[in-house]
From TrEMBL:
It comes from Anopheles atroparvus. This is Peptidase M14 domain-containing protein. Belongs to the peptidase M14 family. GO terms for biological process: proteolysis. One of its GO terms (cellular component) is extracellular space. Gene3D superfamilies: Zn peptidases (3.40.630.10). The lineage of its organism: Eukaryota, Metazoa, Ecdysozoa, Arthropoda, Hexapoda. It holds the Pfam family Peptidase_M14.
Amino acid sequence: MRSLLVLPVLVALVAGATLDFNHYWTAQEINAYLDELASDFPTLASVVNVGTSTEGRPIRALRVSKGNVANRPLVIVESGLRAREWISPMSASYILHEIVEHYYEFENILDNVNFLIVPLVNPDGYEFSRTPNNRMWVKSRSVNGNGCFGTDLARNFGYLWNTVGGSSDPCSDSFVGTGAFSTPETAALRNFIQANSANLVLYLSIQSADQMVLYPFSHSAMTNPSNVAELRSLANSVAQTLTNQNGRIFTVGGAGLLQPAASGSSIDYVAGTFQPDLVYTLETGAGGTTGYDVPEAQMAAYLSETTYGFLTMAEYVANNK
């Protein structure tokens, strides 16, 4: 595998002269990039409409399928659930930059695996976090009343919803919502996963910034999927790959063990409902003053690092599923 871009100054993308990985993209720029990839690589990539956010923004995915062969093992990647985690949608976008624009470097993967990648599940919260004094905003932007807004989308999925780790306070950053899938964002993602579950082998949620490779379940430190040995083995390989890039140490384990137990996560929903072989959260490297505000000048190293971790998972699927 060739070396990915790790320099702080990157050339502009071939498919979009106005887009580069020197800055954090807006939701509009992310969508424009998906359109450009689909236009420039029509035999490999196509845009899928996932749904619409509370404020009317599109939630979109890119389907990557060499020759549009439908029955390959499928990998779904979801990112941008939480607004302040800007490195998450940028990581998904950079993954697409690699596997689509440099498809010829990943023939074994693309000959054997299809991908559906949703770079930005929470466009409203993401855009709000880009406005002055709102950089650490977490939630969506649904109107809760009494001057409170938003739901923590990572607590709104319908598997053991609202049983541990969330808040029923509409003003809390960890507000679980008024019911399972009560937000249009999580409901849209649910429908998208259901519609594509037949060949689903790997589900990956890209979040930040705890530097971890986590497998289900989030709701309990004591509950693991039946193939936990396989999950742990691959997670260890991914963590080693991640650490090898820039020396940041990544921890491996059950999500409910390494983080405070919390129900309603996307990985619990997928693992508990559809039971694909492989389900993970990849918590990216931390940077900046809060962990979430990786400086733009340092972003390239983080994107390359996360992409190498993803490719380790993708190669495993290509060779073993």
